[in-house]
Amino acid sequence: MINEIPGATESPSYLPEQISQNLATIRDAGYDVREYTISAPARVFADGNGALPHSVTATSEFTSRVVSVFPLSPEKFSGNVHFELLNPSGGMESSMFWPDAAGYILQRGDAYVGLTCKNVIVEALKAGSSTRYAHLSIGHDGLLWDMIAAVGRALRASEGGGLLPGLKPAERIIANGWSQSGSFLRTYLSEHLHELHSLEAGHDIIDGYVIGVSSGGFGPMGYVNINRDGELDFDEDLRPIGEFDQLELDDPRRVVRGASVPVMEFMTEDEVMQHQWHSRGDSDTPGDLYRCYQIPGRGHISGVRRVHYEKPVDARPVPEGDLADEPEHVSTIFLLAAALDNIVLWTRGVTPPRADPIVVDIPASYVRDMAGVDYAALRSVKDPSGHARGGVRYLDVDLPRTFMAADVDGPLTMKHWEHRVLSPGEMRGLYGSIEVYRERVERRLAELVEARWYLPEHVPAALHHALDGIDF
User: Fold this and answer.
1) Contact 317, 432 (CB under 8 A)
2) Of 213, 235, 254, at which residue does a domain stop?
3) How many angstroms separate the first and last alpha carbons of the chain?
4) Do 66 and 214 share a domain, yes or no?
């Protein structure tokens, strides 16, 4: 059952912050934002070592919250729906997907739905408005798996079962999750719940999956046990405090295999270090469709970018505007849009490009932390510009105007990344002149579009980003 919670845009504080701050842009694009409750019976599954059928330990009806962003015009709707498992980390719900994906979604006429996944968020929403969210109930976090299927089934119905008012049924559903929520999808696939729910529905419940900034090698949260319930406490390095049930680090379920629909892992250098013993080759084999896209030069957390000059030669005062908060990694917008386009095309039989993995140096004396937390001794092998070799190549690493590096003095996981603007002297040393730099950028952009790492419509914005404020 699906019911609207009235006044979603009149109470934007209850929406994920990333969406509530984007309401004007959403409206200008001819879209609306609404909140719904979705209710259905669901099962709690026992750990069955990834084998079907899973035994059921409990059943319960859930009522969760869905945020829907959709075009008002039926003619504009592409039929593609991006279905995000909203991230519940720290007891605060967020859409890690929306900031980088919004432009692509709004431009293409796609729709978006975000699902509240865990009871800790239900309680947080009720604390914010006990009246508005009185009916929400997730009695056990293990109900999530059937919640995913309930949303998938609804979206296939006319008007998305109520989630997409006035629109046709979804033609393509691409599920995504980021960080902890990405790990939810790894569990969902490795426990063969996609197959279970597709069998029960009589068709693929989801058409493709994007697992974002999550590695199966991160012990505590890289794989969320199918029957895990409640919250964990962590120290600053994300080591769990107290006892909890964690899947063994070398359990094969930590590596996604055997998916009947396309699966794409989209990870940063931070997750790559955790992923060394959980990587696998890309595959176009029917019944095992898989890509792993590794992005050098950025980390797990998208924070603010601090720009400054370090070299005393050429040093100059930094204008106040250069210190303003701005997106840490603008190019992720271009890379994610192309990745989404590639997976949508993949569901229609168009094979996506492959990228080499980031090259990592593992010291001969390295001893694995079987808790899956401490990977601090691992380092990426650097190219001449000081960025990681391999991975998905893009302008910022191939023709850098900034130097991007992790803060080695930070926590073991989720490191802070700093972008240092190259000084005028460094830019002249690399490129000679702004005219040469522009020519090389334009040529490289054409190559990236041809290779399907950038979309053609993003070339003007990417060129502007590369040249804006540049100083020779």
Assistant:
1) no
2) 254
3) 61
4) yes
Q: How many CB atoms lie within 10 A of CB 258?
A: 17
Contact between residue 67 and residue 8 where contact means Cβ atoms under 8 Å apart: yes
pTM over 0.85: yes
Q: Which residue, 267, 108, 257, is CA-closest to 172?
A: 108
Quote the domain boundaries for residue 168: 2-254
Residue at which a domain ends, from 204, 222, 254? 254
| In-domain check, residue 337 | no
259 within a domain of the structure (yes/no): no
Distance, CA of 83 to CA of 163 (rounded, Å): 11
pLDDT in tens, 13-57: 789 999 999 999 999 999 999 999 999 999 999 987 888 889 999
Distance in angstroms (rounded) separating the CA atoms of residues 44 and 56 = 6
- Whether 284 and 293 have beta carbons less than 8 Å apart is answered as no
CB 109 within 8 A of CB 76: yes
Length of the chain: 472
Q: How many domains does the chain divide into? A: 2
| Within-domain flag for 237 | yes
The number of C-alpha atoms within 13 Å of 80 and in the hemisphere containing its C-beta is 21
Name 69's bridge partners.
33, 112
Does a structural domain hold residue 265?
no
Q: Which residues have C-beta within 8 Å of that of residue 320, sequence separation ≥ 6? A: none
Say if residue 311's pLDDT is above 90.
no
